[in-house]
């Protein structure tokens, strides 16, 4: 099969013919219909993600059609499925408690085993997969696998956003845009923060009440002024020190900070304003991924038209275009996300 292989950090992925994946007893092999290119892939491509090594096939936001199903899998050939990026074992205490996203036996295609920057991908623990709704395109479904699911769980499973609350979103990449769209659907009043004017305008078009350029003064103070006391919830979507502190400092007393951006490599340890946390009695939530059992609630929201996630998708590209998309994360990116939909190009 054709795959884009990481051979050297910060260099173009190598387009190669590699062996087809093997189907595990509890898994499936999918023909990849679409795969998103995510900032988490960029962390691996730069060498900052500790689990991603040269030789890796990346790609963890995927949707595909079953071409082979293991004997312990409930799926059949021809089923079209979407996967969360964390594949949980389903039997451990955490999984049985409903917290599959923290499963200690989790499998991670795209990070430590071959992912979906390829024509086919092997998916173990296939009970984590969800059926693709008939009226949902594979391209849109691929965009759900990391960014949207993570934002959905951050807002509803961690921060418990309520209608009428002020939600500040720091960074309007894939997760930030997802949080904006979903937050609006849940009735929140959303403020976004970025440094790219085009992305700020795009966010206003998607329903943000305010869009602040972080280069223009004290963002936290401006949010406190706009909201007459501070945001109820603030979501950090980049994983860097400046925006993490901005997120904490813009909250009102008893506010909730949600760390969604990945602090990894040189950003793993930060200088954090803990005095603000202490004085304002803030709650800090870390969040990564989404338990697979929560897929139906998200898919139902989309299917019944309560939310339109299609504005998230900005570009469809061929497999050969993945390198340029990864390189684009080195600087400010344009609005929306890229999804690979042609694995022969």
TrEMBL record:
Q: What CDD domains does UniProt report for this protein, alphabetically?
A: Zn_ADH6
- Gene Ontology molecular function: any one: oxidoreductase activity
Keyword Protein biosynthesis assigned: no
Q: Which UniProt keywords apply?
A: Oxidoreductase
Q: Which residues form a coiled coil?
A: none
Q: Which Pfam families match?
A: ADH_N, ADH_zinc_N
- Indicate yes or no for the key word Oxidoreductase: yes
Q: Which residues form the Enoyl reductase (ER) domain?
A: 10-340
Q: Which superkingdom does the taxonomy of this entry point to?
A: Bacteria
Q: What is this protein called?
A: Zinc-dependent alcohol dehydrogenase family protein
